Amino acid sequence: ILSFVGRRIFLRFLSIDYLGINGLYSNILTVLSLAELGLDTAVLYSLYKPVADNDIPLINSLLKYFRKIYTVLALGISAVGLALIPFLKFIVKSSLNDNSLIIFYLLFLVNTVASYFVAHKVAFLSACQEQRIQKLVMLSSNLILQVLHIIVLLIWKNYYVYVSATVVTTIINNLILNAICNKIHPHLKDKTEPVSFEKGPIRNRIYSTFVYKIGGVAINNTDNILISMLVSTAAVGFYSNYYTLISAIQGFIAIISTSLISGIGNLGAGGDKKRQYEIFSMVLLFYHFVAALGLVGFSLLFNDVITVWLGSKYLFDSKTVFIIAFNFYITNAITPIWMYREANGLFDQVKYLMLIRAAINIVLSVALGKICGTFGILLATAISLIATNFWYEPNILFKEIFEAPVLNYWTGQIKYFSATVLGLIIAYYSVRNIPNGIIMLLIKAVIIAVSVSLPFFAVSCK
Questions:
Q1: Tens digits of per-residue pLDDT, 230-279?
Q2: How confident is the model at residue 37 (pLDDT cuts 50, 70, 90)?
Q3: Would the CA dihedral through 214, 216, 221, 222 be positive or negative?
Q4: Could you tell me which residues come within 8 angstroms of residue 249 by beta carbon, excluding any fewer than 6 positions away?
Q5: Residue 374: which of 327, 313, 312, 428 has the closest Cα?
Q6: Alpha helices of 221-352 — where are they, by DSSP H?
């Protein structure tokens, strides 16, 4: 709620260019920090057994090793980040002062690098099943940050102070996390004798997950960069308004997904393939229904919500809105596939697939972006997914895990897709003549929910 209020206040006191810079720099630094992807998984996996055995000397030795890796990584990202400064003028298309753009970028870089110095402690808390501590600290600091941002905008109306508040909050968050971790686990400060351990398996795990996830980063974090380069940095600001709504919904879905993955992993360890498939079928129905609600709801309500929230001058055209909603739909409709893949450790079989998808995505984004602008860049994301993971990963999952014909999967997906299309048609004709307004928005939402639910109930009531 605070972030939605903050966004409205942001656009009241600062221009859309600043909002575009916010989204663009966040994406650039996520791409720069892609080396970390895979490291978190390897760190967690390496700590599980020592934590379970309460092997303090080994835990301390591993954490020292991982702290060195994260420190080197932070220095490397700092160096690459600084080297990128001369190229910012080719990425950023904005009327803002060049020196200001560089200072903003440096503040974002400091904010990114600062989090690496306690990353090993955060991983240790996760291995000890104490994620709640990290989440509570993050939640508290984020709440304070949102309030600080609103105060800064109301009093100073200054983007320098706005970004500086983010950096200060990140550093304080890290110091608090470090102090809490040391207090709960005082052995971390003990002067124990170093214990030797095999580093080869750790490096292999880092490589396997890194290769797969580097493609994911290239796909998920280049849209804003390409929109800025091919359209304008202001267009990134427009897109970030829509993406704020998408990511809010995805945040709730992620809670369900991450909670289910460990249960799926335990089920897989039991070896009951029939029960695994039964659960998969239920999860598939649930996620496709959520995806359908998102497709229809976002397509028909997005611009109404943006108008009520921020004003009509921040709207995309209907085809761009639809492709944003369609990307949400297709991603969530196949979420059960990646959930089962991660839970069953199927990284080797698909590790190069994401790189292929990323290459297709970037080439198509440049080509279609020049022709169709923002719509073309987002359309390329959908095409690259359909051309790779969408059809290939189900084959791997059904062959390796379920040992069942993949035709069963496609039969179900086609059935749910038909229900989605029918729901979209019913909803469109039901709400198209209803006027705008907050009350009318709620009425439309109820009609859309019913319009999507009825076809899904019809095809899956048994």
A1: 999 999 999 999 999 998 899 889 888 877 876 777 777 677 788 889 99
A2: low
A3: positive
A4: 294, 328
A5: 327
A6: 223-230, 233-270, 273-309, 318-333, 335-343
- Compute the distance between CA of residue 54 and CA of residue 205 in angstroms, rounded to an integer: 23
342/361 Cα distance (integer angstroms): 23
Task: Give dist(CA 89, CA 228) in Å, integer.
Answer: 11
**Could you tell me if 209 and 193 are in contact, meaning their C-beta atoms sit under 8 angstroms apart?**
no
- Output the pTM of the full model: 0.84
Is 23 in contact with 238 (CB distance < 8 Å)?
Answer: no
- Full DSSP string of 32-93: HGGGGTTHHHHHHHHHHHHHHHT-HHHHHHHHHHHHHHHHHHHHHHHHHHHHTGGGHHHH--
**Single-letter residue type at 388:** T
Q: Report how far residue 132's alpha carbon sits from residue 362's, in angstroms, rounded to the nearest whole number.
A: 37
Evaluate the CA torsion angle 396, 400, 402, 403 in order and state its sign: positive
Nearest to 339 by CA among 409, 264, 289: 264
Nearest to 323 by CA among 295, 350, 345: 295
For the stretch 5-33, what's the b/e string if a residue is b when 16 or more beta carbons lie within 10 angstroms of its beta carbon? ebbebbbeebbbbbbbbbbbbbbbbbbbb
CA-CA distance, 266 to 270, in Å (whole number)?
7
Residue 52 burial class via C-beta count within 10 angstroms: exposed 0-12, middle 13-18, buried 19 and up: exposed
User: Over the stretch 293-326, which tens digit does the pLDDT of each residue have?
Assistant: 999 999 999 999 999 999 999 999 999 999 999 9
